[in-house]
Amino acid sequence: IGFGNGEPLAAMAAADPEMDYLGIEVYPPGIGHLLLRAVELGLTNLRIMCADAVEILERQLPDECLDRVQIFFPDPWPKARHRKRRLIQPPFVSLLVRKLKPAGQLHVATDCEDYARSILDVLSAASGLTNRATGDGFALRPAYRPPTKFERRGRSLGYNVWDMLFERCDRQE
C-alpha cells in the first residue's frame, strides 16, 4: 500500500516470482516508474492499481484474501493537528485484519520515531493481531524488504527505521 516510486516492490516481485504482488498507489508518477521497471524486469507477478487503498480494500478485495500487507514509510503527518490524517488508525487496521488470511502478516516500517510508537500502540491494541517481535516490539528489517533510496540516505545521516511485524491470529477479542 502506497509504494512510492515502486523500486522496492519491483525488487520483491523479481526476487520471488512465485508470489503474486498487488501494489496500490495514488501517485501517478510513482505508478509510471513502477510500470517501466516492471517491463524492464519482465515481471509477470505484479499488478498495480491507481486508487485509494481503503476503497480497494472495502469494495474490491474479499475478506481473508491477502497473505501479507506491506506499508512502508506512510506519511507521518508530524504536526499534532494533522495526526488524524495518519493512515495507521484503529478502523483501518481492523479493515486490514479482515483482509488478511489466517496467519497473514502485516508489515509496517517508518523512519519517524513518534509515528513508529503510535503504530506499535495501534497494532498492539488491535483485535486479531499478534506481534512477531520480542523485546521492545520492533523487528529487524526482514531480508525480503529492500531498503529504499531514501532509507539508505537517512541511515547514512544517522536516522533510524522501525519495522513492525504482526500476524493475524485466530483470537478475536
Describe the protein's architecture and organization.
The chain has 6 helices and 6 strands; from the N terminus they run H-E-H-E-H-E-H-E-H-E-H-E. Helix 2 links the parallel strand 1 and strand 2. Helix 1 runs parallel beside helix 2. A 4-stranded mixed β-sheet has the order 3-4-6-5. The longest helix has 14 residues. It is globular, with a radius of gyration of 16 Å. The chain has 173 residues and is α/β, with parallel strands linked by helices. The mean pLDDT is 94.
Number of helices: 6
> Which sequence of SSEs, written as H and E, runs from N to C?
HEHEHEHEHEHE
Low-confidence stretches: none
Mean pLDDT: 94
- Major beta-sheet overview: 4 strands, mixed
Helix content: 25-40%
Tell me the overall shape. Answer: globular
Q: What share of the residues does DSSP label as strand, in percent?
A: 15-25%
Secondary-structure-derived class: alpha/beta
Cα separation of the termini: 26 Å
The largest sheet has its strands arranged as: 3-4-6-5
* Cα radius of gyration in angstroms: 16 Å
Number of strands: 6
Attribute tags:
single chain, 173 residues, alpha/beta, 6 strands
